[in-house]
Specification:
Elements (H helix, E strand, L loop, with lengths): L2 H5 L4 H20 L10 H22 L5 H24 L15 E10 L6 E6 L4 E5 L9 H14 L7 E6 L25 E8 L3 E2 L12 H17 L6 E6 L6 E6 L4 H4 L2 H5 L23 H9 L3 H9 L9 H16 L1 H10 L12 H14 L1
Parallel strand pairs: 1-4
Antiparallel strand pairs: 1-2, 2-3, 3-5, 4-5, 6-7, 7-8
Length: 387
């Protein structure tokens, strides 16, 4: 057996085929959402790419001729777009309204009235939209180094995918007459950008009157088991996204449940506090900010359900989300924002090991017996069988 065959048990041809499927899978993530189609789930997208390559190989065998690479690529791309369209058509036929299949579409709201600045940083304001709701908005700076709007929206949508309670994220169109940026003299990133007459496309988050719940020690707040579970889930997400800020939340009375419900706030500390270069170079042992709920976790069983949920979550809606965002939310650096999503996926697959490393480092001080690597491996096998 040759050395190459020892490295690739299925042969070099199989290894090259897997690499080619992976390349076309990345192409789908990059190009399919730009055409307005929903990105298929990972399994379906991989199958589509493999099927298109098989048809290409069959054509080569039948005609015994060399086909220009450019023509081959055009054929494969057309096959992938067509298969994605067929899937979208079949899905739309099963629902009452087509947009029900568009997971995580960013809606657009026009700001009608300025209310007040929010927080101590430049660019955060409270406005009222034409739909009657209030929104906390983040005004993009216009700098190439901008990451804050994209960071908060990406982490907001990932929270929703995991079933965490977070406010809705939208695009808020703000005209110069509504928001006079020249009066916002709070500290920010360098010199304050000049005011332009053109509307600003701001990241907005639904605002609800509520009382902040992070001012008291966690033990004195008498939270329900469901709300405590939300905090454990947000802490696990904060480890995944390397949140460098303490998680904040608020509570408000819910008419539907008849009790006070928790709402998680803010994701500005995620992705290494918006420092994407730092996030991309992070290791599994890179430590996020300590969250209040981590002090009360005594057993591995409190974290295990959220590790399972994150392992099974489909990340494709985040890739679609990037193409719905205004480019100024991430400084127009599309390649970098894709690298950030790729890093998120790699951290997702290594999250069990990351949490294990943090437990050994004392991140959960009340946990007497941190999970062993053998327990992590067993959890991973159980999770894969139940997926």
């Amino acid at each position: 057996m040759g050395r190459a065959e020892m490295m690739f048990p299925g042969g070099i041809k199989r290894a090259l085929g897997i690499a080619e499927v992976s390349e076309w899978f990345d192409w789908m993530r990059s190009e399919i959402p730009r055409g307005g189609l929903a990105l298929p789930p990972e399994e379906a997208a991989t199958f589509y790419a493999g099927h298109a390559l098989q048809v290409r190989d069959r054509i080569r065998d039948i005609y015994h001729c060399h086909i220009p690479v450019r023509l081959e690529n055009r054929f494969i791309a057309s096959a992938l777009v067509y298969q994605s369209w067929l899937r979208a058509r079949d899905l739309y036929a099963t629902v009452e309204w087509p947009e029900a299949c568009r997971v995580g579409k960013l809606l657009t709201v026009e700001a009608e009235r300025y209310i007040r600045p929010m927080g101590g940083q430049w660019g955060h304001h409270l406005v009222e939209g034409r739909d009657g709701f209030r929104y906390v908005i983040i005004v993009p700076t216009g700098y190439e180094s901008e990451t804050k709007p994209a960071t908060e929206v990406i982490c907001n949508r990932l929270s929703r995918l995991l079933g965490l309670s977070v406010p809705d994220a939208v695009v808020v169109v703000v005209n110069a007459r509504v928001l006079t940026l020249s009066k916002d003299t709070r500290p920010g990133l360098g010199p304050i950008p000049a005011v332009k007459a053109t509307p600003k496309l701001c990241a907005g988050f639904r605002y609800a009157d509520s009382s902040p719940s992070d001012v008291l020690p966690l033990r004195e707040q008498h939270l329900s088991a469901q709300n405590l579970g939300q905090l454990v889930g947000s802490m696990t997400l904060d480890i995944l996204t390397l949140n460098l800020a303490e998680r904040k939340w608020s509570s408000a009375f819910s008419q539907s449940t008849g009790r006070s419900e928790l709402m998680l706030e803010g994701g500005g500390g995620c992705l290494s506090g918006g420092d994407w270069h730092r996030f991309l170079s992070a290791f599994c042992t890179s430590e996020p900010a300590l969250q209040a709920i981590a002090l009360d976790i005594k057993t591995w069983g409190r974290i295990r359900p959220w590790l399972h949920r994150i392992a099974k979550v489909d990340m494709n809606p985040l890739w679609e989300l990037v193409f719905q965002m205004p480019p100024e939310w991430y400084g127009g650096r599309r390649r970098m924002v894709m690298e950030v999503l790729g890093k998120l996926e790699s951290r997702k697959f290594g999250l069990r090991s990351t949490v294990h490393a943090l437990s050994r480092m004392g991140y959960f001080p009340a946990m007497k017996m941190p999970a062993t690597l053998a327990e992590l491996a067993r959890d991973a096998r159980v999770s894969s069988r139940s997926a």
